[in-house]
Task: structure prediction
Amino acid sequence: MTVGLVLNNRDYGVALADSMVTIGDERKGDTANKLLHINAKDFYGAMVSAGDAINIFATFEHIKDQTFKNPKKMLESIKNFSLEYSLNIDRQALESQMKIEEIAKKYRGKDEEQEDEEDESEEGNGKEQEDDMFGSKKRKKAILGGLEDYITSDFVAAFYDKKEGRVKKYFINAAIYTEDPIFETVIGSGADSAGLELMKLISGAPLGKLHKCEIAFFALCAYVRATQNVGVGGNPKIALIDKDGSKIVSREDSIALANITAAYHADLLPRAYAEHNAELILRGQGKYEEVAQAFNMTEFTLKNMLMPLDSWLNLANNLRYSREPCKCGGKCKKGGKEEGGCKSSGKEGGCGGNCGKK
Result:
């Protein structure tokens, strides 16, 4: 369970992935790196992933230190390794199952053995099935006619191709790799919420003219909304891609960006203010202290403690419906009770300017 986003036009690309990982059926953590940096001679960028964590991490390990002459070689390597890894696990599981059945036969009665022989004769010669490279004819048929059973992970890679002079994006799994020409590509369990948020943001926008900072804000908004889905969360990993290179946003900046974007979604910050401060951070000019003071937080907290969207919504509603006196001393009659109890932020100016104080 995850969310992976890649947004791009010809000049700029942004890749983003969450970091939540499910461990077994009962545990989860926020330590998974589902974004891989790509840095080859003639192309560079990043790849995000969703699906089977073991398959993903094994694929990342397989390609991260390799040198590829061109993007096609890399894409083929990802596809082939992901398929081979799934097949190998399935083959081992099948072999183990066959051994268990063989041991179990020694302890069965003759009647049960006779039933097994009859079942085997109906499906074909048992020796032929055992000698097949995939363990059985049934398994071979499943592989050839149902490859979807082995597509356990999806990958989306975006990179700047020096030879073509543009950002390119590809969707890859164990069966195919294909160029994806649309602006937004989202994978994982959070794709529905992220996709709905992106539809709202990109409608009518001049996508081909957007700068990477604007694209990054779109991606952050989609990520923040997706965190309300089961299995999505943790610190976002972000990569910015253009003709000058591929840059991984630092952990502290990623957390600050996610907090600012979530505060905007909770109506605690105007969009223009949130987008402007996000751009300043991405350009290395972040005004962390100013933003942190708006929430009575320290700069350290803003940059190191990720608050999920639900926490920001809880804070916003608590402030919005608070009955604690505003600093106007109860003189504002709009937006609150006449005797005090301003309904807005409870801070000076929180009454919307109706108390006469700036």
About this structure: The first helix runs from residue 53 to 63. The chain has a mean pLDDT of 81.
